[in-house]
Structure formats: C-alpha cells, structure tokens
Fold each of these.
Amino acid sequence: MPVPLAPGIDGWKMVSIPGFDTVAKTDLLFLHNGTYYTWLQATTNDNEEGTPLIVNFIYGWDYDLGNYNIAEEMSPYLGYWIFLYFDDIVVYGAIPGSTSTEKTIVAIPGTNIIC
C-alpha cells in the first residue's frame, strides 16, 4: 500500500522525497475524495471540484541565490512548498514516468519530510 508524502491539511505544505532520483512535479499524484489526480488535473478544473485542488507551482530553495524559486522537479532530501486548497488532499510522490498509485515513493506515515 502506498504511503503519502504529505497527509491532508489545507494551506502550504512542505514536502520532500527520500534518496531516489529527482521527481518532476508532473509525476506527483494527489488523492482527493477517494480519487487520484495527476498534476494537470489537480492544477486545473479537470477534477470533481471543477476548480484547482492545488496551486500550479512548487517553491524550492535556491542555495546559490538565497531565495525561493519555482521548481519543476524535486531533488532528493530537499524541502519544497506546495499549496493545497482542500484539507483532505494527500500528496503522493510517484516514481518518474509512473502514474500508478502502486509505484509510489514510500514515506514514513504521518510525516512530510523524509530524510
């Protein structure tokens, strides 16, 4: 059974991935009301709510510039911020290229940051 990276709480959520390959934001899956949504579905009206479930960007820290920037992918062991519009959304880190909920990165239950 897949374990979520971020249990559901609305608002800004910090997420991370363990020491695997870099994961594109478009490979993340979002569970809402018992249905899994892709990045595109969760950031547009293409879902049961008819409105975005999350913002369409992720913030990542840029160590060289010393500030947050929009990230297209998540690197292992770094923290990223994502905004959830609904409190029951669970973020899953799918293995790159996979849309299957059976192929997710395993996290520690009840945590957001996995190191």
Amino acid sequence: MDARSGGMLAALETPAGELCVGLMDGQKLRPMVWPAGFLARLDPLELLDADGAVVAHGGQYLVVFGGYLSPRPSATTQSGAFYVQSYEVSEAPGSPAAI
C-alpha cells in the first residue's frame, strides 16, 4: 500500500442511505477510509482528526497518501476504497496558487 491521490473533500449519500466522505475526481466521489479517530461534521462539511481539530473543509483540495484496497463483502461500495495513512491540504492542480 503505497500511493498518492487527491481531490476536493466532499460527501454524498450512498444508495444504502449512508454518508460517504471522500474526494471528488471530476464528477465522481472516490471513497476514502480515513485514519482511526477521524470524523466528519456536516453543514458545513468539515473533516476532523482524532484530536477533534478541523483539518479540512468541504471543497478544499487534499492530497492523500496510502493505498487502494478491494472492498470487504460487507462494504457499502462495490469498487473499493483508498485507505488514507497521511494527508496534506493543498491547492488544486491548475489553481493560481499551485502554478
């Protein structure tokens, strides 16, 4: 498990009625498994670390490091998820601050 990914922090309801907090890749939400203790708050969307500190807001670009694993039979997504081991809040590629 050694990969890098990135996208805008977003949350969508799954067909099973559960909330999935992940990273948007164009029009598709990529599911993330966040580190132990991480939580999400809604309205507005915020990602909190294990200490309860806000580490990102909805719409912010994150670069995450970890790896992609196939789903377990009980997983809510059929395509697997990216297991986040570490992250950086960053500028989106192509944004004026990133150039």
